Amino acid sequence: MDAFYASVEQRDDPALRGRPLAVGGSRERGVVAAASYEARRFGVRSAMPSVTARRLCPELVFVSPRFEVYKAVSRQIRAIFEDYTDLIQPLSLDEAYLDVTAPKRDLGSATAIAREIRARIRAETGLTASAGVSYNKFLAKLASDHRKPDGLFVITPAQGASFVEDLTVDRFHGVGPVTARKMRGLGIETGADLRAQTLPFLLQHFGKAGPHYHAIARGLDDRPVVTDRPRKSLGAENTFSRDLTELPNALAVLEPIVDKVWSGIARGGRFGRTVTLKVKFSDFTIITRAASSERGFTSREAVFGAASTLLRSVYPFRLSVRLLGVSVSRFGEGPADSIRHGDLFEPTG
User: Fold this and answer.
1) What pTM was estimated for this model as a whole?
2) Catalytic annotation present for 95
3) pLDDT of residue 269
4) Which residues are annotated as a binding site for Mg(2+)?
5) Residue among 190, 112, 131, 110 at smallest CA distance from 2
6) Which residues of this protein are annotated with the site description Substrate discrimination (predicted)?
7) Which is more confidently placed, 10 or 47?
């Protein structure tokens, strides 16, 4: 979907149409959840601090998110997809992979299916979507971004490798800013540069991600469309109106964050085996610390105990704390909820 949250708001309030719009907190410490294309022309992007967004675009209009509305629209769109295939892998409320190798409604080509889906989304929701059509997930994702907004782009098998070689590596889905900087430091600027590297070289510098980079540089990606993908983690975080400097204050604000996480876990009835603490400092640098128990964390107190132990492990704070977050991952049934000292570990990356 094109600027999904912002587009829904502009659809529902004609006074917002054509105006630079941000969905998210307008407070000094808020964050932009989504930006309209009018706002993006000023450099406003999702995950940007609201104060930065307002500085880039003084005329920016902020609206509070309405997630129940976005979820309802997402369900409408999912229902359209299901008329064409059962092989649907949602990535978020506004994005999904569809495998139409053997579609329910055969229109002659995947391109024709994409064209009809886009037309139905516009007719039934009043919103625009962009589609990428290709023979694997990596290229379909690249294609979907290529003609936004309201675009349709196709990468055929004959075009795949050559299409990739002309792109800069920061355009590759799955290559984040840190990895892109590392690649540039190794002289890898484009897909062609990446394709020139040997598999041993990529394994040496990028570990288990090396084979993936070796493949996508050649337009190859054998990942299937995975339906009913289980939730891998559940988390919550809070950005504070004032930075935190003392441990008691940090522990106090950690309580409601854990409460929110536990309420989601309790609804799902599945317990995680890893608790991760996220700390963002006043200079916007982020660290994470994690604790694991193979028996699982099966109570709110166990999750808080792990998170608070992790928080104490990074105190005294090197700088004041702007944000704290807690997530639980590695879901599965577990009879015990205790954390052992030997379970503590610090993840790499």
Assistant:
1) 0.73
2) yes
3) 77
4) 94
5) 131
6) 5
7) 10
